[in-house]
Every structure is written in structure tokens, then in C-alpha cells.
Amino acid sequence: MGGLYGGHSQALTDFLASQNISASRIRAEAQARRASATADQALTASATGTSQPSANPQDEYDEGVSFMSAAAAARHARAQKRKKQDEAIEKIKKSRAYKRRKRAHSESDDDLALALLDEKTTPLPGQMSNCEICGKRFTVTPYSRSGPEGGLVCSPCGRKLSKDEDANKKANKKREVVPKSGAARRKIQSRILDGTYTVYDAAKLKSDDFIKIFQSVPQLKKLKLRNAIQFTDTVMQYLASRNLALESIYVHGANLLGEDVWLAYLTKKGTHLRSLQIYYTDRHFGDAALAFYQACAPILPVSKSVTTNSFPTKCDPEGWLTASDILNQKVSDVDDRLLDAIHENCTILSKLRITESEFMTDAGFARLFRGWKNRPLKFVDFQKCRYVDASKPRTNEHMVGLCSQGFEALMEHSGAGLQYLNVHACRHIPREAFERVFSSGKTYPQLRDLEISFCEDVNDFVVGSIFRSCPNLREVNVFGCMKVKDVRVPRGKILVGVPNAVGMRIEGVDD
User: Fold this and answer.
1) Secondary structure (3-state) at 106
2) What is the separation of C-alpha 107 from the centre of its chain, rounded to a whole number of angstroms?
3) Residue 239: how many other CB atoms lie within 10 Å
4) Higher pLDDT, 448 or 16
5) Dihedral of alpha carbons 443, 446, 449, 450, sign
6) CB burial class (10 A; 0-12, 13-18, 19+) of residue 252?
7) pLDDT for res 276
8) Pairing of strands 128-130, 222-225
9) Contact between 365 and 386 (Cβ < 8 Å)
């Protein structure tokens, strides 16, 4: 019988443990309650001066012993609980999770360990827990929600919390100002669009779509359109007829616009313009517009940016004399006449970009810079100005592109004020020209960025001479310069394009 009773006791203990219930804790709490009740009775009897006689002195002795054993059991249970908690905290402090959390948070060690302990001791689905709000025990499910203090709540309390949250959300929505009509919504959208409108790919827009844009944005100041194929004369005429004072116009690919429409718009609206950029207009913005727009747009800074298939052959000299920037990209069919025109007419240029020219010669570049009355340039971009022949890539009998004479004339004229220089793929500049330009007796104090990628004759000695002659140089790009292999980079400077164990970008550490 004793063995059977012991088996039942062990089964009950296992069942309680599976339900997250501690049998020892239940026993200790029961003994504590009995001890408390006995103490209350003794206190009441002493206060009234009466005592209930005991039928048996042995019973009084047993009750005293029971009271003392219950109190001791409660103290022992609490001590064991604290001990286990301290052991668990010490174990957590040695774990990797604690170390990772410690690096990411600034909490104290004990608070962080207790937080991790709480996470580990959170009841799992199927276990029992006490509701944070009502205190009732319930079975935890995957859908049990957390209460205000972080504990779990039972299903009835969870539904009540959800109802309260929904009521608060509805009250907040009622306090918000919601437009009641389409006009109010359009007014908000219009405020967002006022000022600037940009379409990065307008290829699928029709003329009516552009007109709708101007109707929807009555306070438009800056307009930028790329691939504006259907930006036609009708659209420009509508734009000129409306009360729109555009300050900036950027139009790319508007091949259907005629020059007479441009002239009419500049005459009527040019006084407000501060920026005008026109790309790929297929020769419909030519000499007449360039000569005419300065009179119509007096506050528009002069910056000739031509990215068409040709460059205007004639222009009012007054326009050239007031030009500060000439930025021409991919002018493959332009010859030395453009360089001669710049030399004769431009005197206050600061930026000059001419790229991918296949007809300009080294002699033309040399004539441009020799004896030029213009101040030293700050920005020069002559990338891919070279002779192109797939059958004889390194033969250049007629010295097409930027070669030694043009490069040396450029640095002699603008080296003192030059800040950015790009001669990318100007492969006919020889090593001797680089050595003469960056010799030990020459200094270029303003040069910050230098692009000499795919200049095949550049080697370690040339790059070292560049670092020595340019004290304020920040970065040099030498992609495709296969003769650059092991060059010392000074501290504070960057060399980009040399493949080695360090990488393609080397930051200088040498003094």
C-alpha cells in the first residue's frame, strides 16, 4: 500500500511539474497559511485575555512544532528560490546572448540579466500562468496577449483590452481633420506639388498630359523633363499663354520644338528665367536663340551647354564674351573651329568641358591655350578626346585629340588655378609630357582631383611626380594604367584603380 501511495505521489508531482506548478511551493504556501492562522488565533486570545484549553497538552506541543516547521519551510522555500534565481542570473551573465545584449544596451548588469531571465521564464503555450489583470490562472496559448505591465492576460481580459484600444483609435481618428470633398484633397496635393515638378522619363506622356501638369500645378517654378518627346509647339504655346513664371527649365529630348516657338517663349517669359538647360533638341535651338535669349533673360546666368549632334557655327560675340561656362558633351563631329572661336571670344571662362571629340587636333588645343586672355580655368574635362581607329589604335599620324602640346599648353595656362582635371582615355599623351608637366620645379597648389585613367604611358614615376607637384591633391584615378604597380601614396591622399592586395582604393599612410 505504501508503494502504491508513493507511486501516486510521484505521478502527481510529475503532472504538476508538466503544468508549470511547483509541488514544494504549494506545500510551503499551505504551511505558511496554517502558521499564519495559528498566529492570528494566538494573538486574538492574548488580546482578550482568554485562552482555549487544550484537551491534550500533546496537541499544543504538536501545534507549536507545526507552526515552527511551517515558518521554517516557508523561509527555506524563499531561500531556495533566491538561490536558484541567483544561479540562473550568473549563468545568464556568462552566455553569449547576454554579452551581445550588453554591447547594444547601456542597462546595468543586474537589470539586463533579470530581463533575459524574464524572457526565459515566460510561460510557453500549453503551460499555466496567472493573468496580470484579474489574477486568475489560465492556459497560455500562442494567441495570448501581453498586458500593460508586460505580463500575460487571460482571454476575457485580452478582449477587453482590444476593445479599449479600438475605442481609442476611433477617438483619435475623429479628432483628425479629414477632407470631406475632392476639392480639399486636390488642394492638399497641389500644395505638395507647388514649386517643383520633375518627370524622369516622360517618353509615354502625350501633349495633353503635359498641359494637365501645368493646369494642376498653377504655382510651378521649376520644371524638369527627361525624354520629353511629345513636348511639342502646342505645349510650349500653352505654357507661354498661362500665368506661369518659370524660374528654371530643364528639357531633354524635345525634338519637336521649333526655334520660333523658343524665341516666342523667351520674348514673353524670359525675364523670370534663372536657369535654362536644353538637351538633344535636334538642332532646333540654334544660333538665333543663343544670340537672342540674353536680351530676353537678363538675370539668366550664361552657361552654354550643348549636347546635340552639332554646335552652332555662328554666334554673337557679345554672348561669348559674357559666357562663364562652356560644357559640351559628346561633340564627336566638332573640329578645331570651336576651339578657335573660344580662344577669340571668351575671356571670363571658369569651366570648360569638351568630350569624345574625334576631329579636334592637338594643335587646336595648343592654339586655344597659348596666348589666351582668359583667366586660369578651374574645371577642365577633355575625356576621350582621342584618335579612334580599331585597326591601328596606337597610330596617330595627324595628332588627333589631346596630345603632348595641348596638354602642356593647358597646364601652363591654367595650372595655377586648376582644381579639377579630367583627361580620361586621352591615350596619346606621352610619358615625357607628363614628366615635363609634373617636374620637380613645378607646383599646382589648387589641384584637388585628377583623372588620368587609361593614359597608357603613366607609370609609378609619373604618379609620384604628381603627388610631389600637387600638395593639396586629394584623389588620383589611374584605372587602366597598367604600368602603375607599386607607388607610395602620401598620407591624406587617395589612389584609385591599382588592383592589389590592398584593393582598388588605396589611402596614403606614408609621411
Assistant:
1) coil
2) 30
3) 22
4) 448
5) negative
6) buried
7) 83
8) unpaired
9) no
Interval 181-235: pLDDT, tens:
555 555 555 555 567 888 889 989 999 999 888 888 888 888 999 999 899 889 9
pLDDT in tens, 91-122: 767 676 666 666 666 556 666 666 665 655 56
Q: Is 345 exposed, middle or buried (CB count within 10 Å of its CB: 0-12, 13-18, 19+)?
A: middle
Q: Are 257 and 236 in contact (CB under 8 A)?
A: yes
| DSSP category for residue 510 | B
Q: Which amino acid is located at 142 in the chain? A: P
As a whole number of angstroms, the distance between CA 311 and CA 160 comes to 77
Nearest Cα neighbor of 381 from 362, 354, 358, 419 is: 354
Parallel, antiparallel or unpaired: strands 222-225 and 196-199: parallel
Helical residues (DSSP H) of 270-335, grouped into ranges = 287-296, 317-321
**In a 3-state reduction of DSSP, which class is residue 200?**
coil
Residue for grid cell 587609361: 454
The distance in angstroms from the start CA to the end CA of the chain is: 93
Strand ranges of the sheet holding 420-422, from the earlier edge strand across to the other edge: 303-306, 325-328, 351-354, 379-381, 420-422, 449-451, 475-477, 494-496, 505-507
In the sheet with 222-225, reading across from the earlier edge strand, the strands are 196-199, 222-225, 248-252, 275-279
- Dihedrals φ, ψ of 53, to 5°? -65, 145
Q: What are phi and psi of 62, to 5 degrees?
A: -65, -40
Task: For residues 406 and 403, give the distance between their C-alpha atoms in angstroms, rounded to a whole number.
Answer: 6
